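sanity check this record:

:::
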Amino acid sequence: MARVQAQLVDWDDRRGFGFARLPGGTDRVFVHVKSLADGQPRPKIGDELEFDILPGRNDKPAAGGVLVLGPVVRERFLSLHLATAAILLVTLQLGLVFGNVPLAIAAAYTLMGGLSLVLYVWDKKAAQSGLFRVSETRLLLVDLFGGIIGGLLAQHMFRHKRYKTSFQTATLAIVLVHTLLLGGLATGWLGAAARLTGLIS
């Protein structure tokens, strides 16, 4: 069965069990401390969990292979990921308008961003259904080579890879690279530097 995400709404830490509520419904899934995956911390009320739904006592649903994703964050329309993607996109468009960003570079960002979005969607669904996953290295490489805008949009829309510190650290580094690149192109600074280098050499 496909893995699901649900919020922990009841938890007795002394007895080691509680209940999670599936999104958009009132059905509750039994969660026992023994159902936590290896290395997972004990959950707290309000945490978002990811798990398999298994038949429990009296055929009531129970969780298995539970991952604790962390506290549920009420999604704001303008998340940090979405805001960053918007800034990069506006910078790219301004560079096009002022003629400082070549059309080929804008096309590359568009194509790679679309590819990144597709890969994130596939990996999210694969994680929930047990299909072949896209490696984190591949996701990050596509973002590095121009797919960062699509990657940030996917992380915002599907809340994918947003709780993994190492992945977010790498994403931040990629964002900084493309902020400098697009900023330099849009302002004409990189073009001027390239021309100056050409004259000197």
The longest strand covers residues 61-71.
